[in-house]
Amino acid sequence: MQTFKKRERLKLRKDFEELFNDGERAVSRYFVVVYKKSSTPKIAISVKRKFGKAYVRNRLKRYVRELYRTNKDTFNSNIMLFIPRKSLSKKFKDMTFEEFKEIFFDIMSKIK
Description:
single chain; 112 residues; Ribosomal Protein S5, domain 2; 4-stranded mixed sheet
């Protein structure tokens, strides 16, 4: 069984600052991903309050964590920060997990 371990979460302020300063960006219609090569993969999800109500923001975070957990091999030892765009918030409420998966792997294909 694969799990999403605490050491795989990006939490420290200095890590976020380093990622923003040195990281590369991949942009799609629905996501901005800031990423950087690293020896240990870590992820974070940043969702603004304007995205929607708490249950919608939390569902988005659960979806991203689940896709990370089940597809760790496609993350290529990167530190990543996922930032959903406003255009996703309008569609996300009625979106199924499978539809979200397609959008997610679209942005993942743009990451080197």
